[in-house]
Amino acid sequence: MIELLFLLLPVAAGYGWIMGKNSAKNQAHQFNRQITSEYSKGLKFLLDREEDQGLEHLINLLEVAADSVEHYSTLATMFRRRGELDRAIKIHELLLKHPSLNEQQAAASRLELAEDYVMAGLLDSAEEHLVWLVKMDHSEALDPIITLYSQTREWQKGINMFEAHSELFSKEQHFKAIANFYCELALSDNNPSLMRKAISLNHKAIRPLYELGLSAYTKEDYVKAIYYWRELICQFTFFAPLFVDKLAHCYKHLNLTHQFHQLISELLDKGGVLIKIQHCQALLEQGNTEQAFEFLTDSLKRQPTIRGFSFLLQLMGAQDKNTKEVLDQIDKLVTSYIATKPDFQCQHCGFTSYTIYWNCPSCKHWETTVPSKGLDGF
């Protein structure tokens, strides 16, 4: 009898373990049924058009069901798009408090929460979360924090962040932004050395070269102006309309017009209509009128532009006094048409303007607003 008891003990223990396991399974199953039931209630509220009650029900359920992070993130995104930022913030704040979130989920929730704060105008709170993410080497926080510092004009903070975490910066847009931060700070502090620091960045930016050239030109230091603008026009020829006339003046003032003509000739293949007009003017100054006509008409056949046509009308009027008055009237109409067209367009979002914006007012990208191209462009 005692031996039989000893044999039954393991069986009893095994049975107890199995029953305990089944009990745990039953509890988990019951819990899942409860969660499903609660979800169903929330969804029923939504289907019955009782949106406020349904949404509040689902938010409160977050404290019970921590496994549905993706669903709640989607819900919060929906709230943000509807402009219900208080609810979006509430969900993301609750998500961040959950110990079940892994590192990736927590970082994503923190980034979304920062976006909620930005849209709600709580910029200090947004900055706090974005700075934390950058310090934890989450490069996805760079775009929003650069946009934030651009909005608040806190150039020094952006520069400090770059100098402390430069290894995170990889996108060309990031380097352009920091280069412009240096420029903005240099202009506000009257410290040109900061612009030269911007030039030393891994990715070349347009504005530092332009601003340094403009500063030298304003001071009538034409040698320096040529130094910076020549490098700029060779690297970013499409930006020539912003300063090419001033650059021509620099060369002329130093009696180096022939060097300017040579530079323009080298840029013909990649330059726009203004570069071609400059080349025509060089030919005219050298007495090669017929060659200038042939070059311009051939260029217009291959790539028609309104500005090129306007210059052709001026040439024809200058050569034929009998038709000059008529051609001048036509040119006035063409010039009036050109004046109605925006001179600049953002290559990222398509925003157009009559003036240069280093930071696009629409998409907030740096140095994407460039002189217009095509039939009405430069």
TrEMBL record:
The LapB rubredoxin metal binding domain extends over 344-370
This protein's UniProt keywords: Metal-binding
Under the heading NCBIfam families, the entry gives:
PRK11788.1-5
Presence of the UniProt keyword Metal-binding in the record = yes
Name recorded for this polypeptide = LapB rubredoxin metal binding domain-containing protein
A Pfam entry, by short name: Zn_ribbon_LapB
**Record-annotated membrane-spanning stretches:** none
Q: Its Gene Ontology molecular function terms?
A: metal ion binding
> Sorted alphabetically, which InterPro entries does this protein's record hold?
Rubredoxin_2, TPR-like_helical_dom_sf
